């Protein structure tokens, strides 16, 4: 899979250039490789090339992949980033290290109850629906503070920050606007006493805009693994 190795290096280079423009350390941005729809062997190849954090959207597909890669578990970090229904929280609480897509308190409460006591706290981000988002999931900016404080009080979870999936936009300025909104909300919540360190924003098409606005995790699928095929 020479493409994969080349693509990973190219994405790291994009992150480094954007970080440099923003006077940030490239290492302050974590690359989350979004491996949904791609086989466990692609994850294994990316891991061999030095990639450790992987994002998945579909619970059953992800759990199968995590089990197939059990031999690498100690050096892999699994992030759940997809829509999460309340009847699917248990396998997520049991198998993942992070959940970015917590979009209501009830989901967080279930994850907290179901996180096994022998595992470290589950890292979570609150998904926010900044204005005009393609994905309708997420709390509104106005609700965010109340929900975030409630999540931060739950056992077995560690609220790390905020996540969003903005509407695709063509120009870098249009891409930056919703990322800036999320960063401003993040700063307000921190000023309000929450110890947050994570802004999960930016994908293949807009990662530069996200890094310029302060992203600490960019979630990149297509630019690493290629176009997704949903036909099977
Ligand atoms: C699929 C997905 C990504 C990756 O998108 P690409 O455009 O392929 O980089 C990032 N975040 C979420 C929430 C996704 O569902």
Can you give a write-up of this model?
The protein has 232 residues and is α/β, with parallel strands linked by helices. The chain has a single domain, classed as Alanine racemase (TIM Barrel). Helices cover 42% and strands 16% of the residues. It has an 8-stranded parallel sheet with strand order 7-6-5-4-3-2-1-8. Strand 2, helix 3 and strand 3 form a beta-alpha-beta unit. Helix 4 crosses helix 5. The chain is globular, with a radius of gyration of 17 Å. The site of pyridoxal-5'-phosphate (PLP) has 14 residues, from strand 8 and helix 9.
Tell me the layout of helices and strands.
Blueprint lengths: L1 H20 L8 E5 L5 H9 L4 E4 L2 H10 L8 E4 L8 H7 L2 E5 L2 H10 L7 E6 L13 H12 L4 E7 L8 H20 L6 E3 L6 H6 L4 E4 L1 H4 L7
Parallel strand pairs: 1-2, 1-8, 2-3, 3-4, 4-5, 5-6, 6-7
The protein binds pyridoxal-5'-phosphate (PLP).
The site of pyridoxal-5'-phosphate (PLP) has 14 residues, from β8 and α9.
Pick out its properties:
232 residues, alpha/beta, TIM Barrel, eight-stranded parallel β-sheet, 9 helices, 8 strands, 42% helix, binds pyridoxal-5'-phosphate, Pyridoxal phosphate homeostasis protein, pyridoxal phosphate binding, PLP-binding_barrel, PyrdxlP_homeostasis
Summarize the structure.
Pyridoxal 5'-phosphate (PLP)-binding protein, which is involved in PLP homeostasis. This protein is an alpha/beta fold and 232 residues long.
């Amino acid at each position: 899979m020479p493409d994969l190795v080349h693509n990973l290096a190219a994405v790291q280079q994009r992150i480094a250039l954007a970080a440099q423009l923003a006077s940030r350390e490239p290492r302050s941005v974590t690359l989350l490789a979004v491996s949904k729809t791609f086989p466990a062997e692609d994850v294994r190849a990316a891991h061999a090339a030095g990639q450790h954090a992987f994002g998945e959207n579909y619970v059953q597909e992800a759990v199968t992949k995590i089990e197939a890669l059990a031999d690498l578990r100690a050096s892999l970090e699994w992030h759940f980033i997809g829509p999460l229904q309340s009847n699917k929280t248990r396998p997520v609480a049991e198998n993942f290290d992070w959940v970015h897509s917590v979009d209501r308190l009830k989901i967080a409460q279930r994850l907290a109850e179901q996180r096994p006591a022998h595992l470290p706290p589950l890292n979570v981000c609150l998904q926010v629906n900044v204005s005009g988002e393609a994905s309708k999931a997420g709390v509104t900016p106005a609700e965010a503070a109340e929900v975030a404080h409630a999540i931060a009080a739950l056992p077995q979870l560690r609220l790390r920050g905020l996540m969003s999936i903005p509407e695709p936009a063509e120009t870098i300025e249009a891409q930056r606007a919703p990322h800036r909104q999320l960063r401003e909300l993040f700063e307000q919540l921190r000023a309000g006493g929450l110890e947050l360190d994570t802004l999960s924003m930016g994908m293949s098409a807009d990662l530069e805009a996200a890094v310029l606005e302060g992203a600490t995790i960019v979630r990149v699928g297509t630019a690493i693994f290629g176009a997704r095929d949903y036909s099977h």
